[in-house]
């Protein structure tokens, strides 16, 4: 795997994940109480012995840069690195990144310097565990110019993805980007050619691209240089290459979730609390997910009832009830609170005890969730200050709302409390 260079695409402005991406890049969004989305592809690379990794970013990349710098430091006697390449303007290229392919094109001069055979292109906002070495081996065995990792998918979700048709040997013959109606029906295939059973093939008659690609080094460089007007891999570069190059599909059989919207992000986090077998598990010693080591104290629970939940380190939880929720690092939950079906991201720092007691904050509301508050079906972003006897219930069943001036949004019926927001005592949402 020393001959493979990993390239993780940090994504655009993250409009579908807004307001979680208001102050951070999409791959920097917190996950599962202590991780960030970027930890997933980086950990997959390290576990697959791919240790030369570039992360391409453009929007709100400060917290992402800080996280990667603090987390991934390889010993000096190896070639390994995880390096952020932010969008920049040069005399030859005065514009920002115009798409996934354009982002790689603008830095291909740097990547060419490495003695490698393949480029592995990854996305920074997916939740899955994958051994890329098997993916690379398949690419080499089939002598493919480009290999796409694919998943079989059902009709309900198919129209949200780039779909493809393949022949009996796994060669990609036809593409369609997010088809609808009759165009969607035309993309049905017998997915048993990928090795699925007849029953599985009937349930999932479509082949969707995961947005994970391997290119031969010279093939990617040629495609980017010969087609300067093409800015996106999934929509332009790869469909345009199918006539002249050997494109292969590699079946991925594990759990994979595209965390592109607030709803999918919320669902993926809460699914981690399932017992005994969550869809995705962080409890795999053979392929751990790495993140920044914070050296936090253990969580303290005082006379509380906690069921089906995940709780990060450094939390203080007093006399409350927590059910089917995820609490991030340094969360503070005061007495008589009820938290259900909720993701609390925690805090970036411990607030001094004297400040909490004296109300020295500008808002007079300490970080965390105040006494007597009830929160259901919500996401509480980092450093939020929620006062006493606050009710966050979306009692009117609103699907979409923008109340940024009041410190919250509603997305797909989920209340999202903004990072650093202050929700005063006795507020009802």
Brief synopsis:
The chain has 429 residues and is of the alpha/beta class. 21% of the residues lie in helices and 28% in strands. The longest helix has 12 residues, at 100-111.
Report on the architecture of this protein.
The protein is α/β, with parallel strands linked by helices. The protein has two domains: 4-271, Spore Coat Polysaccharide Biosynthesis Protein SpsA, Chain A, CATH 3.90.550.10; 300-423, Hexapeptide repeat proteins (UDP N-Acetylglucosamine Acyltransferase, domain 1, 3 Solenoid). Helices cover 21% and strands 28% of the residues. It is built from eleven helices and 29 strands. It has helices at 39-47, 62-71, 100-111, 132-141, 155-158, 181-185, 198-203, 217-226, 233-241, 262-271, 353-358; strands at residues 4-9, 30-31, 35-36, 52-57, 81-86, 118-123, 126-128, 146-153, 162-166, 172-177, 206-216, 247-251, 256-258, 300-302, 305-307, 310-311, 316-318, 321-323, 326-327, 332-333, 338-344, 368-369, 374-380, 385-386, 391-392, 401-403, 408-411, 414-417, 422-423. The strands form seven sheets. Strands 15, 16, 18, 19, 21, 23, 25, 26, 27 and 28 form a ten-stranded mixed beta sheet that branches. Helix 2 (62-71) links the parallel strand 4 (52-57) and strand 5 (81-86). The mean pLDDT is 90.
């Amino acid at each position: 795997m020393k001959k493979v260079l990993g390239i993780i695409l940090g994504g655009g402005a993250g409009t579908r994940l807004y307001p979680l991406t208001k102050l951070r890049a999409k791959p920097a969004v917190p996950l599962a109480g202590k991780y960030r989305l970027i930890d997933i592809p980086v950990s997959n690379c390290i576990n697959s012995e791919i240790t030369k990794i570039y992360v391409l970013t453009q929007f709100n990349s400060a917290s992402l840069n800080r996280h990667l710098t603090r987390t991934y430091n390889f010993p000096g006697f190896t070639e390994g690195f995880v390096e952020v390449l932010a969008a920049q303007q040069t005399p030859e290229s005065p514009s920002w990144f115009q798409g996934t392919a354009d982002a790689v094109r603008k830095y291909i001069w740097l990547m060419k310097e490495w003695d490698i055979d393949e480029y592995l292109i990854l996305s920074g906002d997916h939740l899955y565990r994958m051994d890329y070495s098997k993916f690379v081996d398949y690419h080499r065995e089939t002598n493919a110019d480009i290999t796409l990792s694919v998943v079989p998918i059902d009709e309900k979700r198919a129209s949200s993805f780039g779909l493809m048709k393949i022949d009996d040997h796994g060669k990609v013959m036809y593409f369609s980007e997010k088809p609808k109606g009759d165009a969607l029906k035309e993309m049905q295939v017998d997915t048993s050619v990928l090795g699925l059973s007849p029953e599985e093939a009937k349930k999932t008659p479509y082949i969707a691209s995961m947005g994970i690609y391997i290119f031969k080094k010279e093939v990617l460089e040629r495609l980017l240089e010969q087609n300067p007007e093409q800015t996106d891999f999934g929509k332009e570069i790869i469909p345009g290459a199918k006539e002249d190059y050997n494109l292969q599909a590699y079946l991925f059989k594990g759990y994979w979730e595209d965390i592109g919207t607030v709803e999918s992000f919320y669902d993926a986090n809460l699914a981690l609390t399932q017992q005994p077998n969550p869809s995705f598990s962080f409890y795999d010693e053979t392929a751990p997910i790495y993140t920044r080591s914070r050296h936090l104290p253990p969580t303290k629970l005082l006379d509380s009832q906690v069921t089906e939940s995940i709780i990060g380190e450094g939390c203080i939880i007093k006399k409350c009830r927590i059910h089917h929720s995820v609490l991030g690092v340094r969360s503070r939950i005061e007495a008589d609170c009820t938290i259900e079906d909720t993701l609390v991201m925690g805090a970036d720092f411990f607030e001094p005890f004297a400040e909490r007691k004296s109300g020295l904050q500008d808002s007079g509301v300490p970080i965390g969730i105040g006494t007597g508050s009830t929160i259901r079906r919500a996401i509480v972003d980092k450093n939020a200050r929620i006062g006493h006897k606050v009710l966050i219930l979306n009692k009117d069943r609103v699907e979409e709302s923008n109340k940024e001036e009041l410190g919250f949004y509603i997305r797909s019926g989920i209340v999202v409390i903004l990072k650093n927001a202050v929700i005063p005592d006795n507020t009802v949402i």
